[in-house]
Amino acid sequence: MSSNYEIHFAASAPLDGSLAVMLQAAGESKPAGSQDADPQGICDRAAGIARFKAKSMGTLEVIAPQGSKADRLLVLGLGKPDDLTDYDWMRAGGAAAAGFKSATDVVVFLDAPGIEVEAARAADFALGVMLRGYSFDTYKTKKKDDEEKPPKKVSVTIVTSAHAQAEALLAEAQAVAGGVLLARDLVNLPPNVLGPVEFADKAKALEALGVEVEILDEHAMQELKMGALLGVAQGSARPPRLAVMQWKGGKPEDTPIAFVGKGVVFDSGGISLKPGGGMEDMKGDMGGAAAVTGLMHVLAGRKARVNAIGIIGLVENMPDGNAQRPGDIVTSMSGQTIEIINTDAEGRLVLGDALWYCNDRFKPRFMINLATLTGAVLVALGNQHAGLFCNDDELAGRLSAAGEATGEKLWRLPLAKEYDKMIDSKFADMKNTGGRHAGAITAAQFLKRFVGETPWAHLDVAGTAMNSPSTEISQSWASGYGVRLLDRLVRDHYEA
User: Fold this and answer.
1) How does 237-270 read in b/e, with b if 16+ C-beta sit within 10 Å?
2) Which percentage of the chain shows pLDDT scores above 90?
C-alpha cells in the first residue's frame, strides 16, 4: 500500500505531537527550524555524540526531545551546499520520507542555513516524498503488523519562505509523481493480470485526463501489414494491441514529438525459449511501454504546452504450435523483410512496425523509443545507466543533460555501418539478431532501419526499468525509469 501524503507548503506550522524534519548543510552549526523545534539545543548534543556532520542524506534522530512540542526530531544532512543538484533535493525528500515511520503529522523545515531554497527545489523535495511513499503489496493477503503499517494518511507541511511559489508548483509535481507511479504499477503487475488487452485499457483510461486514445486490434494491424509485430504475437492466445495516445497541448499547427514503447507483457522467448531461472522477471519486459504511458499521464496532468504522441506495441511472446520459428521470414509494415534468427529477439520486431507507423502517420519532429531490449546493455552498463543510441547529436545532448538533471542517466553508445552489416541476411533484407557480440548496438541498428531521416533516439532500459536498485526515491522492483527523464526533456526544450 502506497502512503497517502497530504502535502502543502506554509510559512510556519504547529509542532504539537508531530515529527519535525530539519534540514542541515555540511559546515553549518544549526539545522533549519531549530529555534522552533529544538529550543533547548538537544540536537547539538546528540550530533556531537553521534558524530553527525550533515553529510549528504545522513540522518540524526531524537525521540521525545526535552523542551520541544514535537514528539520526534529528524535532522537530515544535505552535504555541501555548492554540490547540491536538482536531483539531490528529490533524494532529500525521499530520505526524509523514509524517516516518517508511524508519524501522521510531519513538519519539514526546508530553509537550511547557508542554502537558498528556491520554489522549484522545494517542489522537487515534495516529489521525492511522494515517490518514496510508493509500495506494491496489492497481492499480499498477510499484511504487516499494525505497528509496522504506515498510516493511511500523513499530513506533511513543508515550511519555507518560498511557500507561495512552491504551492503553485505542487500540482505539477503531483502530476509527475502520478506518471512515475503509474509506470511502476504497470511493470509490477503480474502477467496473468496485465495482458495486451488489459494494458491497452490502462492507456485508454488516460482519456480522463484529456488524452486522445486509439486502440488498434489485430485486424487493424493486419490491414496495415504489421507482419513483424504480429509475428511475435501469433504464439499467444492473448491478442495484440497497438495503443496510440495523443496529447494536444500545443498549437494545432505545431509538429508533434513522439515516444514509442516496447510492450511485451511477458516474454518467454518463444520457440527460442529462455532458461527457467529468472523468467518470472519477464513480466517487466514492457517497461518501455510503461514509461511512455506514464509520460503521457504527466504531460496531460500538468497541461504541457506541447503536442505529443505516445505509441505502445502490446504483445505476449509465447511458444505454442502457432508461434513463429527461427528461420521464418516476415514482412514488416515498411515492406522490409526480416529473417527470424532468434524468437527471443522479439522486441525490435514490435518496435520496428510501431516506429514506422508513427513516422508514416504523424511525421513527428523526433521519435524516442524506450525498450527493455537487450541483456547486452546490462552487461555493458549495469543498472546505473540506460543505453542511448541516436542519429542526431542535438537530441542526444539534450537527452543526456535531462538524464543528469533527473538522475535517470544515459550513456551514449555507437551506431556505425560496420555494425549495421552484422544484421544483413542471406535470405531477407535483414535478420533480427547479429549474434552475441555488440548485441545492444546491432539491436539499435535494426531499429534505425525503420526511422528514415527523422531525428531518433533509442533508450535501452533493460537494466534500469525493472529489478532496479534501491534509492532514496524508489524502493520498488519497478523504478518507473524514463518518465521524469523525458518530462524534463520536454520542459527544457519543446514546450511553447
Assistant:
1) ebbbbbbbbbbbbbeeeeebbbbbbbbbbbbbbb
2) 96
